[in-house]
Amino acid sequence: MKFLKFIFVGFIFGIVLTKSEAVSWYRIYEMFRFESFHMFGIIAVAILTGLIGIQIIKRNNIKDSKGEPIVIPDKEKGNYRYWIGGVFFGLGWALVGACPGPIFILIGAGFFPVIFILIGALIGTFIYGLLKDKLPH
Amino acid sequence: MDLINQTWTWYFSGFMIGLVMLLLIYFGKTFGMSSNLRTLCTIGGAGKFAEFFRFDWKAQRWNLAVVLGTMIGGFVAVHYMSDPSNVNLNPKTIEQLTVMGFDAPEGKLAPDVMFGNEAFQSPKMIVILLIGGLLIGFGSRYAGGCTSGHAIQGMSNLQLPSLKAVIGFFVGGLIMVYLLYPLIF
Fold this sequence. Notes:
- The structure holds two protein chains of two kinds.
- By secondary structure, chain A is mostly helical.
- In chain A, 55% of the residues are buried.
- Chain A has six helices and no strands.
- Chain B is an all-alpha fold.
- Chain B contains nine helices and no strands.
- The radius of gyration of chain B is 19 Å and the shape is globular.
- At the A-B interface, helix 1, helix 2, helix 3, helix 4 and helix 5 of A face helix 2, helix 3, helix 4, helix 5 and helix 7 of B.
């Protein structure tokens, strides 16, 4: 089954985010108060690992699993969307201590009130879709 | 077993997250969890209301498979790979939490008042969870990504827009924790 490998990658991701406690509301609160290095260390090492990996891929023109060249799309240029959108996201992240990955992980783990966060996030995404053309990007 | 059940170190966890992203790139995909929210809106029929949701969601089924995997992973990690020593915060943080009415972690991943079943009985908490979700959903789509797409993949790929977004994430987070928390809790 072609989706099996993606379920597997997600499975590993879910375990790592849970066992590192990056899914923990407490850890996110502690991070924003700069009272622990833990979350900053996780993010820094993840970026460093990715940076080295992507450089290896680019310099050696490594192909993907289907033999196609690997192309990582550049993010669109812009200002407003990143600054304003980013601040909105940060407000929510700090309030409920979960970003989109952990929302799903926590529901799977049985923290059912997180379903309200998911409903809110779907409504928020829908509102963006409605307003997209009126917002500065 | 201790190595599995105790809190995983920041360096091993960070390395594994980087590897998960590289594995998705190797499979010809990208790392981005918030895109699934858009896909779910489309499946729910949001295309009737906005052009943004009119896309071939079936091309995103692989990412929904990742989501399914994360949910199983979360279940396994919490039920079979945990012990009571887990979440342990800076004592200063715990002191501050008690003042605001949050139970101390004592190994738990999340406070009962917000994530336990008692949250269902608190209209205030339900509103907080909904508003938090709303900000996350709106903000991540406006910014074109969340922690995975911008903070991890975008920064690894040296994308200036991602740096702007991540600075935005932190500005928003600091405003929430230092200015708004005292008003909310």
